[in-house]
C-alpha cells in the first residue's frame, strides 16, 4: 500500500483495537500492523496473549503484553498511545 493511502499516525495519539472471537483451541497472529523495519507498530496475539509493539526509527522500541492468553469467547483487545513531544518526536519525524 502506498504511504499516501495509509493512516497518518506519526506524531499523534491514537487507539487501536480489534473485536475477536477466540475459538476453543486459542488464537495467534497479527491483527493489524503499519510500518516496517525502521518505524511502525503492530497489534497481535502471541501464544494467545494480546501484544502491542511500537518501533521508533529502530532506536526506541516498546512492547506491552497482556499477562494471560485470551480464553475462548468474544474479546476486544486495544492499546492507546500518547503523542510524543521533544527530542524523540523530532527524531521520529521525516520532516
List the helices and strands and how they pair.
Blueprint: E1 14-17, E2 20-22, E3 29-35, E4 40-46, E5 49-56, E6 60-65, E7 73-75, E8 78-81, H1 87-92
Antiparallel strand pairs: 1-8, 2-7, 3-4, 4-5, 5-6
Task: Using the alpha-carbon principal axes, give the shape.
Answer: elongated
> What number of structural domains do the residues give?
1
Q: Radius of gyration, Cα only, in angstroms?
A: 15 Å
Q: Report the uncertain regions.
A: 86-95
Mean pLDDT: 80
Strand order of the largest sheet: 3-4-5-6
- Outline the biggest β-sheet: 4 strands, antiparallel
| Sequence of secondary-structure elements | EEEEEEEEH
The tally of strands reads: 8
Beginning-to-end CA distance, first to last residue: 21 Å
Count of alpha and pi helical runs: 1
Helix content: under 10%
The fraction of residues in strands falls at 35-45%
Category by helix and strand content: mainly beta
Amino acid at each position: 500500500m502506498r504511504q499516501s493511502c495509509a493512516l497518518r499516525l506519526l506524531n499523534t495519539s491514537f487507539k487501536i483495537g480489534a473485536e475477536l472471537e477466540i475459538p476453543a483451541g486459542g488464537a495467534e497472529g497479527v491483527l493489524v500492523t503499519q510500518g516496517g523495519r525502521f518505524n511502525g507498530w503492530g497489534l497481535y496475539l502471541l501464544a494467545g496473549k494480546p501484544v502491542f509493539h511500537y518501533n521508533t526509527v529502530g532506536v526506541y522500541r516498546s512492547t506491552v503484553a497482556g499477562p494471560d492468553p485470551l480464553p475462548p469467547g468474544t474479546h476486544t483487545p486495544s492499546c492507546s498511545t500518547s503523542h510524543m513531544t521533544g527530542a524523540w518526536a523530532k527524531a521520529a519525524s521525516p520532516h
